[in-house]
Amino acid sequence: MLASLEGAVISAILVLTAMGLSIVFGVMRVVNVAHGEFFMLGAVLAWVVTTTLGGHPVFGFVAALIVVPVLVGCIAAGADRLILKRVNYDPDRTIVATIGMLYIIQQATLMTYGPEARPVEAPFNTRLSLPWFEFGDEGFQMIWPWGLSITSYKLFVIFAAIAVLIALWIVLTRTKIGLIMRATQQDSDTAQAFGVPVGKVYSWVFGLGAGLAALGAVLVVPIQQAHYLMGGDPLLLAFIVVIIGGLGSLPGTVIAALLIGMSDGIISVFFSPTLAKIIATFLVAMVLVFRPQGLLGRAPS
Amino acid sequence: MTLHIAVLVVLLGLFFVLPAYHVGAFSRIMVLAIYAMGYNLLFGYTGLLSLGHAMFFAAGMYGFGLTVNLFGFSVAPAFLTGIIAAAALALIVGYLALRTAGVAFMIVTLMFAQTVYLVILYFGEYTRGDEGFVVQQAQRSFAGIDLTGETERYFAALILFAICFLAVAKLVQMPFGKRLVAIRENEERARMLGYDAAKLKLHALIISGAVSGIAGATYGLLFGYVGASFSTVQYSIFPLLWVLLGGAGTTIGPLIGVIFMFYLIDISSGYTDAYLLIAGVALVLLTLFAPLGLVGTLRKRAFPWLP
After folding, report:
1. Chain mean pLDDT for chain B
2. Which of A122, B121, B251, B253 has its CB surrounded by the most CB atoms within 10 Å?
């Protein structure tokens, strides 16, 4: 029960990160290898914002929550304009270019922020214990066991992720922005012919994808410290999620994120962490070999 | 062919001209250039972008190092084991990964390489994981020659480089090489002309993996160190960088790319710890301005006869 709540927190962060990767791939057909670095940038900037503002942690955190994703989104959109647009979104060359971006962002952070891991204080952090139902001597009763508790902050992360997902879903399916994005995704040439500014849409989408990763990172820094190499694991996990869910399929991404986040804890109960990683990595490669469209994706027509 | 001989003569001459530090650097450069040539065969000629070649380099390296360390093999059979290990791994990976293409191929090779890296860590008892192990000096002599000296090392690297260099140059001139280029340019058309594209790609991957394995085994032999860091993603990205920099699909491009990148990092690491920043900037600038690489651009602009 507790493992599954911790798993839900992991899933919540993962779903935001993977969603960013998935949207970018879905709309632009770009595999963004630098995605993990946008995540890292979000965490580092969250530290910068909260320490410069000082004051009460809630104030700094809320400011970071608003400012950082926008900032990272702008950086990503700028990178899109400056680099990806110029290589015409050619699949091979964008991969190479985003690998280059990965090193630039990571090493630039190392030069400015330094190699230390730094914590961000959680805005609120009370321990809540959870009820547990049990059949005792007096029939069905509710007890409050000592070990079963979660901090209020972690609960907040879960609900925040759900709220963002719902907002994202509404934007994608109910608004004109979503319509434009879906039109670009289906056929960018036709969309262009109908007056959709495809270039601008691409920049916005790339910024949105990076912003989602940064948002996930801002949420995670009170739990996990900000470090310049922290982008590697989220990138790999987000890749795994997006592949299993089906490249570009948003509902698939959500389900896969839940699956991976929840099973992460469970697999590591049975195997050593390295063996668990080996199995997971190999299985994902196999999924891609035999079902390139992912578990829930549709085969390309 | 004359040009290739000339390159080898220049490399031979460099030994007598360069100061000791750069002689050591060039031994390393030539070994890494073998790796780059192996990569180039798949990426430059066949058009398959792999992000997992470090697994073949590591297979060669561990195939050599582990047989020497655990079973006391002498240099020749251990070296051969390294090459066979790399080729066998390439056969398995190729059989599976070549079912996919494009982006999926990159990710699948990346995942396989990551699996290999984790497997090396998992068997840390034998491989010593990230820390790696040293191949003793006594175990690194071949036909009575101790390969740990600076001079012997340079010439051993030069000879192995020359063999691979001339073999690859010959290979891409042969009908086999031309067929690989045909697949790179238009796989559909190559298949229509009756070539078995799937089989050719598998052969290209096996040869490419084997050459990368030679580089790995040579590295272990000449520098006496075997470690898991050589199987990380970074070592899969380096050959891509070298080949792109030098010129994909050219025979001397890989060597030029390695020399350029080696000295770029060598010089910049004197100023900053964040030397990988240079690698990143180089990658981005290359994709933007010189997608053909140094030799490729020269060939297009001025010297169409360059191989």
Report:
1. 83
2. B253
Out of A83, A107, A282, closest to residue B284 by CB? A83
Tokens of B53: 């070649």
Per-residue model confidence (pLDDT) at position A301: 40
Q: Does A131 touch chain B (CB under 8 A)?
A: no
User: Counting every residue, how long is chain A?
Assistant: 301
**Taking CB atoms and an 8 Å cutoff, what residues of chain A touch B244?**
96
pLDDT digits (tens, 9 = 90+) for A241-267: 887 777 667 788 888 888 877 776 666
- Three-state secondary-structure class, residue A292: coil
Where are chain A's structural domains?
2-122+172-290
DSSP A238-268: HHHHHHHH-TT-HHHHHHHHHHHHHHHHHHH
| Inter-chain CB pairs, A–B, below 8 Å | 111
Q: Which of B31, B78, B43, B23 is nearest to B207 (CA)?
A: B43
> A285 vs B111: CB contact, 8 Å cut-off?
yes
Give the nearest partner residue to A87 out of B112, B244, B287, using CB atoms.
B287
Is the interface score ipTM higher than 0.85?
no
Going from N- to C-terminal start, the domains of chain B cover 2-301
- Structural tokens at position A205: 């989408």
Q: What parts of chain A have a pLDDT lower than 70?
A: 1-4, 55, 92, 123-150, 247-248, 264-272, 292-301
Q: Which residue of B has its CA nearest to A100?
A: B280
- The C-alpha atoms of residue A262 and residue A251 are separated, in whole angstroms, by 17
CATH code given to domain B2-301: 1.10.3470
The per-residue pLDDT for B39 is 92
